[in-house]
Amino acid sequence: MEFIAEIRRRHLVSGESISSIARSLKLSRPTVRKAVKAQVEPLYQRQRQPTPKLGEFQEQLTDWLALDARLPKRQRRTAQRLFECLQIEDYQGSYGPVQRFVMNWKQQAGIRSTTKQAFVPLVFPAGETCQFDWSHEVVVLGGVSQTIKLAHFRLAYSRQMFVAAYPRETQEMVLDAHVRAFAFFGGVPKRMVYDNLKTVVDAILVGKERQFNRRFLALANHYLFEPVACTPESGWEKGQVEKQVGNIREWLFTPTPKFQDFTALNAWLAARCLELAGRQHPQQTQLTITECFAEEQPLLNAVGAEFDGYVEKTLRVSSTCLIRVDHNRYSVPAEWANRVVSVRVTAAQVRIVADSQLIAEHSRRLGRDQLICDPWHYLPVLEKKPGALRHGAPFQTWDLPMSIKVVRDHILKQDKGDRAFVELLLMARALGDGGLDTLEVACDLTLQTGVVAAAVVLNEMRRLTESTHTKALTDIKLSIPTLQLEPMADCARYDSLRSLQHEH
To answer: Could you report how far apart the first and last alpha carbons of the chain are, in Å?
Structure first.
């Protein structure tokens, strides 16, 4: 209290009475007496801090703290996060009472906070440094709770962040995360700082020397950034992104969010990164993170062509025309059975290359023990073994148009129906990309006639392709040359020829 020194001086030095001091300073006499004795005993010693606005929410807060105490440490809400949750419940008070309540509850529960360390404040030039790290978070995807991997990026100057979710921390996921981050930032920083990840660093040498992974160096060479690895077990060398891991867990993953799939989750994460950038910059307090990023973004190196972030491996195709990638099996064209092919795996695709040509491509599946087949890959096998059409795994889940399914079911009931329907498929493949559409139209026309047979469908397909070919010819405009000087008719020459004929 600012009047303590004045009260003590006026009473003890000047001899002014307590009543006079109380009247002049508009204080109660007990307060003045306490001030006079302040040197011996404290003026105020509050035994209990009143929290009128928190009172009705204390039970809710206690339940949340008890629930969080049973969760792993990374999933527990901080006092700030609990305060934000109470605000959603219409709490009108300030943060201080919530913080004190949480601290007291943890002390009574025997939960102690970790010891704080001291660090040197760092300053980074704009456009120079970006820090990277992984974290493990818990989400509900498609109704199933699972642990995902979150790739964190943070520009050290502006504090602009970017996060992307993946099922694993494999190298193709690392490459894909960088491609997404640089597209999100609209540029590339000059330096990227990492832990000694196995997908980034192959060997730790003396000091700061590292042997980086060759595929990762291809990424760095494409985007022209310098990779820097931290000293082992020295996470403070990239302290900003280490702190971001905790903040993102608090802001976005407590309580556990729910999404249908990774696509929806990553779209939400990108939107939240933009939203969180509206917060105040921790150092340039007069600016927001968004405003600082607007200054930094033009200083980033421009992004050219997108890096093809695949990891390549050599595999042998099985006799069933399959290769195994990450616990799942993918089909390959039958002509490559029992041969070696090159498989390029990205975060979203599986591409099979042979003789420098792309021979097959599949969307990558993230589960286990799944069979991903393209039925067209097995058509050469059906040509020799048409009976496999009925029970072949690639054809059981083939999503054909309804008219083709109806015709197929009719033909398979006929004598030698397997081979007859295979001939229709061979005809469709011979027509190229539009072959399946032509087969669908031919089946529709066949069903309209009421006579369902392979010969009728083949006839309709030929008629459709011939009419298309004829129409293409009629659309061609022929340029017929014209004579500039037409010859004159000479009937005398004809008469001379007749006379010669009579003579002979």
So the answer is: 149
Answer yes or no: do 292 and 231 share one domain.
Answer: yes
Check: CB of residue 177 under 8 Å from CB of residue 307: no
pLDDT at 500 over 70: no
How would DSSP label each residue in 8-49? HIIIIIS---HHHHHHHHT--HHHHHHHHTTTTS-S---SS-
24 and 85 together in one domain? no
CA–CA dist 277, 270 (Å, integer): 11
495 lies in some domain: no
Residue 76 gets which letter from DSSP? P
CA 169 – CA 236 distance, rounded (Å): 22
The backbone region for 30, taken as left when phi is positive above 0, alpha when psi lies in -120 to 50, beta otherwise, is: alpha
Do 286 and 176 reside in the same domain of the chain?
A: yes
481: preceding bond cis by omega (within 30 degrees)? no
Domain assignment present for 480 = no
State both tokens at 457.
């469908």
Contact 219/47 with Cβ under 8 angstroms? no
Q: Is the dihedral of CA 398, 399, 405, 409 positive or negative?
A: positive
Phi and psi angles of residue 495, each rounded to the nearest 5 degrees, phi first? -65, -40
The DSSP result for 230-275, as a single string, is PPTT-GGGGHHHHHHHHHHHHHHSSSPPEESSHHHHHHHHHHHHHH
Query: And the tokens for 391?
Result: 């029970």
Alpha helices in 93-213 (DSSP H): 95-109, 171-185
What are 364-417's pLDDT values in tens digits? 988 888 999 999 999 999 888 888 888 888 888 888 899 999 998 899 888 888
Q: How many residues does the chain have?
A: 504
Question: Which amino acid is it at 39?
Answer: Q
Please state, in angstroms and rounded to a whole number, the distance separating the CA atoms of residues 465 and 342.
Answer: 37
In a domain, 490, yes or no: no
The answer to whether 393 and 371 are in contact (CB under 8 A) is: yes
Q: Which residues, in sequence order, are CB contacts of 255 under 8 Å at separation 6+? A: 77
Which amino acid is located at 322 in the chain? L
Average pLDDT over residues 299-307: 92
Nearest to 246 by CA among 156, 150, 173, 158: 150
CA-CA-CA-CA torsion for 271, 274, 275, 279, nearest 10 degrees? 160
| Sequence-separated (6 or more) residues with CB below 8 Å from residue 322 | 329, 330, 331, 332, 371, 373
Domain that holds residue 28: 4-36
Give the SS3 label for residue 136.
strand
Number of folded domains that form the chain: 5
pTM: 0.69
Contact by Cβ (8 Å): 281, 191 = no
Cα separation, 121 vs 439, in Å, equals 70
